[in-house]
Amino acid sequence: MASATTRTPSSHGALTRAVRDAAAFDPSGLAPLAGLRAAVGLVASLAIGLAVGGPSAAVIAASGALIIGILSVTGGVRPPLVTMIVTGVAQASSIFVGSATGQVAAVHVGILVLWAFAGGLSVALGQGATTVGLQAIIAFVVYGRFAESPVGALRLAGVALAGATFQILLTGVVRWPAALRAQRAHLAVVFRELASLARGDPNTSSLPVAEAADVAQRFVSGSSLLARDDGTAMRGLLDEARRTRLTLVSLAGLRRRMGPGPGSFVTDVQGLLQDGAHIFDDVAAALTTSDEAVIERLRVRIDTLSRSTRELHPSTADATTLTSATVDVVAALAGQLRAINTLVDEIWHSGRPKLRRPHLNRRRDRNWRERVRSNIEQIHSDLDPQSAPFRHATRMAVLVPASSLIGEYTPLARG
Question: pLDDT tens digit string along 222-254?
Fold first, then answer.
């Protein structure tokens, strides 16, 4: 009885937390402009289908647009073009096969087993492939109930593909949401102040950097309601700027303790700080311009500074505990600059108008043969009953056809 009493508060607390988490509302997931764009594509596909082919065509075209619209919202500022295209094609193919085989139950269920297994196994290739596999299974099951001749099934698939294509084109033309210009401008001020701090003597105050960061915080935090990838990157960039300010303050303290000194080590550190100041200026410029030369210059300067940092070693005569600590702090600064470069690159690409459309990852596309080979090897390695993707695919291959049969041959209400 005592043990039951002691477990009750814990169980009640766990239940309360579960209910609270289930009812929680996180506004950072809202993406109103991207959602509006997807809704426009959906309604337009519905209207065009209704005008051209009637209610059935309208619903099928809208279903094709709906899936792509969801991807355009969840794919960030630059939705993945390949995933959108492959999903549309996979959905259309599934509609054709599911509808064309719907009149022969044995064939239909047999193919559905293979379809569900392949869709379940797609989890081995990541989120994009999982999306494609899941939508293919759903399309097969749903349109398998609308049995048609091969010609009729091809017509259904074509209408769905037309809706998906319309949504992809709309996503490419309508570049919502727009770049966050005000946020970029205030972040640029922070990095100009960091450049001034890096150029100054060891007694230069870091207060202007802190004040600029506080102002930028008010602008950057507001972008969370747009659920944007570049909004997240901007907050990360501001955090890196604040950490970099503290690193520069630490480095200034070490420089004061070392004094001006005649040694080459102090001169090398001052030279690295001047290089860092140029990098901060380039970051500010990258945030407020669409000039690709600025981004390329930023990369080159950071690579150069990283090499110089690795070569920073005090001579035997200069070596002290202070110089050793300075080397460590400079190395930390170089790491922060590399992190800043990564975030700036993401923000810059997200903010360019012509790049806020569905994108191809050109770096990956150059090695598409290698990627295909790697995917095949991954699938082959997961064709093992002990692997998690194989077990998931097996469950899908059993449960999806079973559920479809239950829905088909039992008098359960649907709709």
Answer: 544 344 445 678 888 999 999 999 999 999 998
